[in-house]
Specification:
Layout (H helix, E strand, L loop, with lengths): L13 H4 L11 E3 L15 E4 L2 E3 L3 E3 L8 H10 L2 E4 L5 H13 L4 E2 L11 H11 L4 E4 L8 E5 L1 H4 L20 E2 L4 H11 L3 E5 L5 E6 H6 L17 E4 L5 H11 L3 E4 L7 H13 L4 E7 L2 H9 L4 E4 L9 H5 L5 H15 L3 E4 L5 H9 L4 E4 L14 E3 L2 E7 L4 H5 L22 E5 L4 H19 L4 H9 L5 E3 L2 H6 L8 E5 L2 E5 L2
Parallel strand pairs: 4-5, 4-17, 5-12, 9-10, 12-13, 13-14, 14-15, 15-16, 16-17
Antiparallel strand pairs: 1-21, 2-3, 6-11, 7-8, 10-11, 18-19, 19-20, 22-23
Helix pairs in contact: 2-3, 3-8, 10-12, 13-15
């Protein structure tokens, strides 16, 4: 973007775009193209999510119980982003989710599925149907840390006619194991020499510590963009509420090694959030804290003054959120991100755009308006790493996806996002819904698709990095244009009797 005389440029600056009184959503405008003199693979997507935490990718998963537990957080951190563990669980359960991420070593399965000797071949069938594999260690007591007495492979059960037969009668007893602490390269060598598919790593007493899979070694051999702390452990975030009882939760999460505490409130500009934010920064100053959700400049200033290391922006734009209609409070997401980004930039605080994203173009727009990263629920729901099991709805493979303010999630603990007294909790007013989303496959396939699309988006804008994108917006070189409803129709698929859009297993058919 070499032009210096802004009067010679088409379109509007960001300030001019949002000068009107109307709130704008991401679909209400476009970014005008810039000059391309570089390949899209040269685009640098590195960023900060908070004052002290850098990411290789501007992707953060939402702390929802149908989106982020340890599997999502591990894989997203391996790929360069960050997962935030939800709190619809006990304190110990959430802390253990964090510990699983911090214990993870690339290529090592630290929480393998195991069976006891009295399990049946039918149990193996169920595991294979659910997880897609059948190489399962058998332990003496059927517990993940039990003594290993055998392993089940597909060859052991493939032609077994009696599916109710106990696994101890068909399992492989002559095991090849490795000692706990074995390096990944040595484990790979041992697997290659043994010609086995799975390698249990055991302690001196023969108890299972972890498992190495040949398939995972081949698939996950190298994650150069993995986001790690100074101890070379993956980074992870976790959500807490503003309630006083969650101070114990914060302490447990810090002891578990959490890197980022996300204070999760539907309306973050409250005395309750300010108090918990100030307490966390005073009690655990080594941990970054992200505060929110807020949508105005005044709200941002109060949270930053209280010690926030990052801001989470959005109130009501999520695909499963009904806050704006139910509460009559909120803000159009593009306007919220733009407005809050000015305060965040002044104070040097990263801004997380949370909500309203259902396609790659929305990610590009959120970042162009000042977001340092985007938090996504819908986009990551339905992936293999999201909690829950797949099921079929009218022949389509889907997973459950529910808002944390849906009645279903509130019954499980999601009402902690709302500052209510115990006697208020008998009457619950939902601000979200439950539903399902299409199978999106594994993150190892899905995230590279998002990366490729986002890099090409920034290339079309004429910028080589997120830093350059923000600079272009600030100096007015990045240009915008409003879209009428007719322009929005024109910019989408139209004029067809039917169409099919396919992207990594996501398919949609419809009439236009």
């Amino acid at each position: 973007m070499a032009a210096k005389d802004l009067s010679e440029l088409d379109g509007l600056s960001a300030a001019e775009l949002f000068a009107g009184a109307d709130g704008l959503a991401y679909d209400d405008f476009l970014i005008l193209p810039g000059h391309i003199d570089f390949h899209h693979q040269e685009v640098d997507l590195s960023t900060r999510v908070s004052r002290n935490i850098a990411l290789k990718l501007p992707f953060v998963s939402s702390p929802m119980d149908t989106v982020t537990e340890h599997k999502m957080a591990i894989r997203l951190a391996c790929l360069g982003g960050l997962g935030v563990i939800h709190y619809n669980n006990s304190i110990e359960e959430q802390a253990e989710e964090v510990r699983k991420v911090k214990r993870f070593e690339n290529g090592f399965i630290t929480d393998p599925v195991v069976l006891g000797p009295q399990a049946t071949v039918a149990d193996v069938d169920r595991i294979k149907a659910r997880y897609g594999f059948s190489g399962i260690p058998v332990t003496e007591d059927g517990k993940p840390r039990g003594k290993v007495i055998g392993i089940l492979t597909n060859r052991d059960i493939e032609f077994e006619p009696d599916r109710h037969r106990p696994v101890h009668e068909v399992m492989t007893r002559e095991l090849v194991t490795g000692p706990a602490g074995l390096s990944l390269s040595d484990a790979n060598d041992l697997l290659r020499r043994s010609k086995k598919g799975k390698l249990p790593l055991v302690d001196d007493a023969g108890r299972l510590v972890s498992l190495v899979s040949r398939r995972d070694l081949l698939k996950n051999r190298d994650y150069p963009d993995a986001v790690k702390d100074e101890r070379k452990q993956l980074r992870v975030g976790a959500a807490v509420s503003t309630r006083d009882e969650d101070r114990e939760r914060v302490t447990a999460l810090v002891e578990g090694g959490v890197d980022l505490i996300v204070v999760d409130a539907a309306q973050g500009d409250s005395i309750y959030e300010l108090r918990v934010l100030e307490w966390i920064k005073a009690t655990h100053p080594q941990v970054d804290v992200m505060a929110g959700n807020v949508v105005t400049r005044a709200q941002c200033r109060r949270l930053i003054d209280a010690g926030a290391d990052g801001l989470r922006i959005g109130m009501g734009p999520g695909s499963i959120c009904t806050t704006q209609g139910t509460m009559a409070v909120g803000r159009a997401q593009a306007t919220a991100v733009w407005s809050c980004s000015r305060v965040a930039a002044e104070r040097g605080i990263p801004l997380l755009a949370d909500g309203g994203i259902s396609q790659i173009g929305h990610i590009g727009k959120a970042l162009a308006l000042g977001g340092s990263a985007v938090m996504m629920g819908y986009m990551f729901a339905g992936t293999e790493e999201a909690p829950g099991e797949y099921f079929y709805d009218n022949g389509v493979r889907v997973k459950r996806y529910r808002g944390m303010a849906s009645l279903e999630a509130m019954e499980a603990g999601g009402d902690k996002r709302y500052e209510t007294r115990a006697d208020d909790r008998k009457v619950k007013v939902a601000q979200g819904v439950s539903g399902s989303v299409l199978d999106k496959g594994p993150l190892d396939d899905y995230v590279p698709y998002l990366i490729q699309g986002l890099r090409q988006s920034l290339q079309d804008m004429g910028v080589r990095s997120l830093a350059a994108l923000h600079e272009a917006r600030i100096d007015g070189q990045l240009r915008f244009e409003r879209r009428s409803l007719a322009a929005q129709v024109e910019g989408g698929v139209h004029g067809l009797h039917s169409y099919q859009e396919s992207a990594l297993g996501m398919r949609r058919k419809g009439h236009r």
